[in-house]
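User: I'm preparing a small set of examples for a lab meeting where we compare how different chains pack in three dimensions. I only have the primary sequence for this one, and I'd like the structure in token form so I can line it up with the others. Please keep the answer compact; I'll paste it straight into my notes.
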Amino acid sequence: MSNSALRPLVVDLDGTLIKTDLLFETASQFVLTQPWNIGKLLGWLLQGKSMLKDHLAQNTFIDAAALPYNAELLTWLKQQKAQGRHIVLATASHRLLADQVAKHLQLFDEVLATEGSINLRSNAKCAALVAQYGPQGFDYVGNDWADLPVWQSAKQAHVVSRSLKLIDKVCSQGNLGQVFGDGNPPLAQALLTAMRLHQWLKNLLILIPLLAAHRYGVASSVGAALLAFWVFGLTASSVYLLNDMVDVADDRHHARKRHRPFAAGHLSLLHGWLAWPLLLMGAFTLSITALPWTFSVSLGAYFVLTVAYSLRLKQIPMIDVLTLAGLYTLRIIAGAAAIAVPLTFWLLSFSMFLFLSLAFIKRYSELKTARAEGQNTALRGRGYNPHDLDLIANLGGSAGYTGVLVLALYIQDAHTASLYATPQFIWLACPILLYWISRAWLIAHRGQMHDDPIVFALKDRVSWAVAALFAAVFVLAKVATV
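Assistant: Understood. Below is the structure token output for the 482-residue chain.
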């Protein structure tokens, strides 16, 4: 065996072996599951960081099998293990958590971790390793500036980082070994991804009252509507960040959602807890200072209902889809409030039924995927199981067709005749919408639908063509005369 193979290989956990930090994971989970006990966090922190970690480890649950591991490093460690290397997990995370990771990986011969009054980080970790293995008696894999004292006492310093400055600093010590990527995109890119800017297109619903009231020629109304769109986007992004932190454990068990920034470890939970309140404060500042108070009320209702959905309502069958439909309809209500025009019975009814159908498609697609994978139990974090597929399809299809019926009845309304030169042309919109709803359900039934039908529509050329035809019908009804 080579000299390096005879030395223990010591591996850090947070940010090194895994792409997340278990202190932030447990603290976030504690706040979200026990918000009434949030004051305890400060009390525990005042007792010392090691005591904070101890209490959090005992009051939360971490699924070690679902954590986002650094695949490149893990492969290398397995190779070292196969060569007979003695591998040690040395982490500032609490021992209860470190032992769970070690038990899952079956890779470590020894575990050193925070316990009692000792927070095993930086100098404390260095002292513990030197005491056990002697100076230069071990190799160390770390990822942070806090690891510099440990690297200085190690024979070989292996680095997991994209920071050239940190790598150069370790290299200047003369003992740089392997360099591994952290597998993460730049912070700004990860944050923008988590904000889901593409989902802002849903907020175009705010412009519908502007179009329905034919106020698109009034500059002040257009400006107010566009500002409302921007404010709703900031609010929606703040909620997306919060929602993904709430769902991080469930998302790691989902085939697609496990790639979301928080679930994949691309974005720290700490950054999420800093970003979402800032986005929300910015949105409400703009709303209160530049838009009607009724819009701010609508925005507040949207935020409260969305948070309630993220924390609890999405787990209650039928309540979840009604909430989703209500959130879409709230965008239209907010759009009307922003330009101070009255809402019509027809617009509210149409939007509620149409978006209820789309919400059912979302659930149907999730269940269809679960059943195709052989799952017979309830979806994780949801209140449905694959046996509900037929019922959901019936309810969703009926809701969509009822929305088309509302559109047909709208054509006969006396107020409609005052807005359009020839409202009879709007009848052409009914078969167009019937086709799009039927096609969406057909695609979902075949298992080809993205679990969010709005996102699917934005990527679907046929949906864009249908939208163009739908808009053309209303333009025709406005300008054409018979």
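A couple of notes for your slides: The chain has two domains: 3-180, 187-479. The longest strand covers residues 87-94.

User: Perfect, thanks.
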